Amino acid sequence: GCTKQPYFGMEGEGARWRVAHKPEGAIDMINKRCKGGGCTKHRVYGVEGDRARWCLAHKPEAAINVISKRCEGNGCSMFASFRMEGQGARWCLAHKLKAATNV
Fold it and tell me: What InterPro entries has UniProt attached to this entry (predicted)?
């Protein structure tokens, strides 16, 4: 059997399966879900400076992606997608270091 951490299960039960093994109808039991009434999607959007509360379909107009890392360039608000080997994403295309690679 699979020895990896399960994330998916049926509503009202614990996590029993990985994404590769989950049956139809199983939902993510580990990651917090959208606050949009009964929605089972992951939270990504929130108010700047606060935590994620909604998915794309249920976010208020002013909500922004508060999960994805932003560029470390001075004053830049673009998403980071370039990194140095062995590190996470740190810069956008405009601010990346010459040796940085796309994640």
Answer: EsV_1_7_cys (IPR043822)
